[in-house]
């Protein structure tokens, strides 16, 4: 009886181990065994999606429409299945797919109408901060456009921290305040989180996303130690 009740756990763990090792053959065997013996297992649909994703190579060359569809699948079905199976480890498991797609569309120019279809944001999702930074710097006038500027803030946040991103965040707040406001908490910088919380509590604005335009000026008044790094943002906008 103990073996009978643990058999499904054994098969499930075999599938998880095979997926973690990215072993397509072992994964297919484990999913087939689980399907044959426990066809109603709640993780079976997720296992099937992830196993199939491992077995499906990217086409070469890759057309824009195909790249868009692959990215949509990654963000929706595959990401959901990965979170069901791996929980907090899901992003690490997904990372190689984003890096592979980034390499496949490396020659795509930046298009503000299709921001996601560029190597830089895919490399950010893969956690390849330096490579993403290099790709962003190759975009003409990247510091004058909201999307690549936001990407660079994220990359430099991981590479160099709070002081390195404050001049750029100030520029983004002036250029695209709503985007800057949404980006700030995603950076997970305690010093920045404190500033934003205090700004939200103390600044008497119109109550619209445009209020964040005033965040750099308010931050400078709230903490005069920011003067030196925020002076760099003024230089960057000349």
Main beta-sheet strand count, sense and barrel state: none
Alpha-carbon distance between the two ends:
75 Å
How much strand content do the residues show?
A: under 5%
Number of helices: 13
Q: Note the overall shape.
A: elongated
The assembly state of the depicted protein chains is: single chain
Helical residue percent band: over 70%
Order of helices and strands: HHHHHHHHHHHHH
Protein architecture, described:
The chain has 238 residues and is an all-alpha fold. It has 13 helices and no strands. It has helices at 2-21, 24-37, 44-55, 64-86, 90-104, 119-126, 129-137, 146-160, 162-175, 177-186, 190-202, 215-222, 227-237. Helix 3 packs across helix 4, helix 4 (64-86) packs antiparallel against helix 5 and helix 7 (129-137) runs antiparallel to helix 8. The longest helix is centred in the N-terminal third of the chain and has 23 residues, at 64-86. The protein is elongated, with a radius of gyration of 22 Å. The termini are far apart. The model has no long low-confidence stretch (mean pLDDT 93).
How is the topology of this model organized?
Layout (H helix, E strand, L loop, with lengths): L1 H20 L2 H14 L6 H12 L8 H23 L3 H15 L14 H8 L2 H9 L8 H15 L1 H14 L1 H10 L3 H13 L12 H8 L4 H11 L1
Main attributes?
72% helix
What is the structure about, briefly put?
By secondary structure, the protein is mainly α.
